[in-house]
Input
Amino acid sequence: MSQKPVGLRNNHARARPGMRRNVLVVDVNAIGMVAVIRSLGRAGYNIHAIASQRDALGLYSRFTHHTDCNPPLDSASYLPWLREYIRSHGIEAIIQSEGFLHAIDSAYEEFAPLLPDSVPASVWQRCLSKVATQQWLMDASPASSRNMPAGGIMKDAESIPGKVDLAGLDGPFFVKADAGLARNAPAAQVIRCETVAQLSAAARGLLPGYEALVWQNFAPGKKVGVSLWRHNGKFMAQNMTLGIHMQPWTGGMMSLRESFWHEALLADARNKLEVLEWQGVAMMEYKWDPVNDQFWFIEINARYWGYLHLDLYAGKDFPKLQVDAFFGNLSEDMEPPAKKFACRHTVPGEIGYVMSRIRASDIPVWPKVCSIGGFFFRFLNLRTKSDLWYPGDRLLYWRSWLNYLRKLVTH
Output
């Protein structure tokens, strides 16, 4: 890939009065960053979208002003390329991703003034680490360590729990590794373990490549996402989402979600985010058991989240609120949404959900048929929105279908 900007598009023809601020959105291959582009572009910002892949969906959004391909985030040429792009395009704000923060780690103070709600490096490094997050919450106070599944930190063979340590706990268990704590390992990893023996084997296999690992016991129920924006120590916007379908169906991304509200869970999420000292936007992931109304904190995603389109459809415009505040126009949105919706990531998310159920040997035929029927019924359900079928930018929906079908044919 070229080490210089390749200028995929310079869409000056779409500039309108009021499009005065140049905002750089990175890693626009992610569906959450596509939602950021749409929010800020609709609000009148000049959107500069970049990604390391030429087929990243966000590069083709009609809400962009200029698009480009950047060198790989882990390459020596990335920071010089980024500096030149910021200088030549007059970038005034950057919407960060986890990968972007790791890429600029050695020069964080240089770029921090361009990041809305920037925090000290020690804070973002903590909040991007599953190990450090869990340790911080357990050590901070009894209140902050409540509503968490059984778990712990593993730094060496002696700290790996055995059958005696986990007596009374049923599997599955999860072993999680952070990219930021990798010694010679490729990236972050999550391994599902059905038994204590599998947990021990997974930990022993991973520990040589990481400074520390987290283990967590399974938490039952449905996945919940808590969307939060904290600015100068005050919560300014909040919303909640309930996962209906996961991809794959046994657990993963929320391919179908709907509006949700739960005051006690929301309060717990705000408390934990405050204890972690995070400023800016974050999604706090929980599991909630509707049978006994119990909930457990799983992890923080200290960035924009994959289901952000549902927030936008519900009128919760987090990116606009945050960037407006960065440029001096502060407002808040703390009330429950006036309208409730369901929203799905149709392709490949919901297709993956349905296919995972079809392939499952432990699901009877009739529930599989219902999953297939439900997939097609939701095309007719006006209450169910689609991430990419967004007003004014619907070509991305068809592009995602085309990309999916191409991969299906070639693989």
Summary: The chain is about 35% helix and 25% strand. The first helix runs from residue 31 to 42. Confidence is low (pLDDT under 50) at residues 1-7, 10-19. The longest strand covers residues 234-247.
